[in-house]
Amino acid sequence: MLVSQVIRYFKEFFHPPERRYLYQHSQYEVTTAIFKILDNKPGIFSENDMAGEFIGDGVFYFELVGRKMFRPAMIIHIRDSPNGGSEILIKPITAIGWKLMFFTAITGTLAGLTHFIITNSISSLLNSLVLLFVIPISCIFMARASDAATEDRFKRFIDKPIRSL
Fold first, then answer.
1. Distance from C-alpha of 64 to C-alpha of 46, rounded to nearest angstrom
2. Which pLDDT tens digit goes with each residue over 17-43?
3. Number of H helices and number of E strands within the chain?
4. Res 1: pLDDT
5. For the chain, does the N or the C end have fewer beta carbons within 10 angstroms?
6. 45-92 confidence digits (pLDDT tens)
7. Is there a contact between 130 and 105 (Cβ–Cβ < 8 Å)?
8. pTM, rounded to two decimals
9. Is 120 left (phi over 0), alpha (psi -120 to 50) or beta?
10. Are the C-beta atoms of residues 63 and 71 closer than 8 Å to each other?
11. Which domains are seen in the chain, by residue range?
C-alpha cells in the first residue's frame, strides 16, 4: 500500500494529471474571454499574477509570475464538447527547478553512499539518507503546491469570468 502511494506521487510529480472543465458557451466565446484575460498585465503586486500567450488552434500557455526555474505553468486546450458547449483541458507543467533538485538529490545520495562504502563514515550514510528522503519529498511537495496554486489561479482568473458570461 505504501509503495503504491509513493509510486503514485512520483507519477504525479513527473506527469501531473489533466483537469477537465465543461462550459455551456461555444469555443469561440471561451477563447474570446481568455484573450480578454490575456490583455490584463500581470505583476507581482497586482491581483493578476498570471502571464499567458496563445500557442495555436485553441491552445494557450499560462504561467505564474516569479522565478523562471520554479515558475509553475499550464497548457490549456479548448475544444468543442460532444454534448454542446465547450470544454477546457488543463495540463499542469511542473517547474524544471523542482525536477533538477530531485535528480541532484538522487545523485548526491549515490555519491554519499559511495563515500560511505569507501570510508565507513556514518556521517556520509546519514547525509545520503537525508538526501534520499527529505529533499525529493520536499521537491514533490513543493511541485504539488505550485500546481495547486496554478489551478487556483485558473479558477479565479479564467474559470470564474467564463462562467459569468
1. 12
2. 899 999 998 888 888 888 888 887 766
3. 5, 5
4. 65
5. N
6. 666 678 888 888 889 998 887 778 888 889 999 998 888 889 999 999
7. no
8. 0.80
9. left
10. yes
11. 16-99+131-163 (3.30.530.20)
Q: What are the beta bridge partners of residue 64? A: 50
Where does residue 132 rank: exposed (0-12), middle (13-18), buried (19+ CB within 10 A)?
middle
Q: What 8-state DSSP symbol labels residue 69? A: G
Total count of residues recorded for the chain: 165
Q: What is the pLDDT of residue 161?
A: 87
DSSP H or E run through 21: strand 19-23
Per the CB < 8 A criterion, the answer to whether 132 and 109 are in contact is yes
Distance CA 51, CA 65 (A): 7
Taking the C-alpha atoms of residue 137 and residue 93, their distance in angstroms, rounded to an integer, is 18
User: For the stretch 69-108, what's the b/e string if a residue is b when 16 or more beta carbons lie within 10 angstroms of its beta carbon?
Assistant: ebbbbbbbbbeeeeeeebbbebebbbbebbeebbeebeeb
Residue located via cell numbers 472543465: 21
